[in-house]
Amino acid sequence: MRAYVGGHQAVSVNDFIELALGTPPELWLGEEGETEEECAARKDAARDILADRPELPDDVARIAAEVIEAHAPALFNVIPLTRPVGRRRPSGKGAAA
Predict the structure, then answer these.
(1) How many beta carbons lie within 10 A of that of residue 20, not counting itself?
(2) Which are the contacts of 10, defined by CB distance < 8 A and separation ≥ 6?
């Protein structure tokens, strides 16, 4: 089954995130091993995007809330753990009858 978002095919979770946000997640999260210059350039680009789209943080929060709500049963399916009942060994100190 193929999934499309706004006419674009999404083949991975990152594709869905990028299509929902309009930017790649790496722009906001960074990439492992990036240099200081790459990090500075990435942050400059992110600032420019936020200047052009000040509603983006609210959109991200809304999308995150929708995903949590859609998957809440699985995310919050908490099963209380019970303590295993240990076997009691006789202490050898029996009461005299």
Answers:
(1) 19
(2) 3, 4, 16, 19
Helices 56-70, 13-21: axis angle to 10 degrees equals 140
**Distance between CA atoms of 48 and 56, rounded to whole angstroms?**
12
pTM value is: 0.54
Rounded-to-integer distance, Cα 2 and Cα 52, Å? 32
pLDDT tens per residue across span 24-66? 888 888 999 999 999 999 999 999 999 999 998 898 888 888 8
The residue whose two tokens read 């009942």 is 85
Question: What are the tens digits of pLDDT across the range 7-19?
Answer: 777 777 778 778 7
Per-residue pLDDT at 4: 67
Phi/psi of residue 56, each to 5°?
Answer: -55, -45
Calculate the alpha carbon distances from 59 to 32, 39, 43, 53, 79 in Å.
26, 24, 19, 10, 33
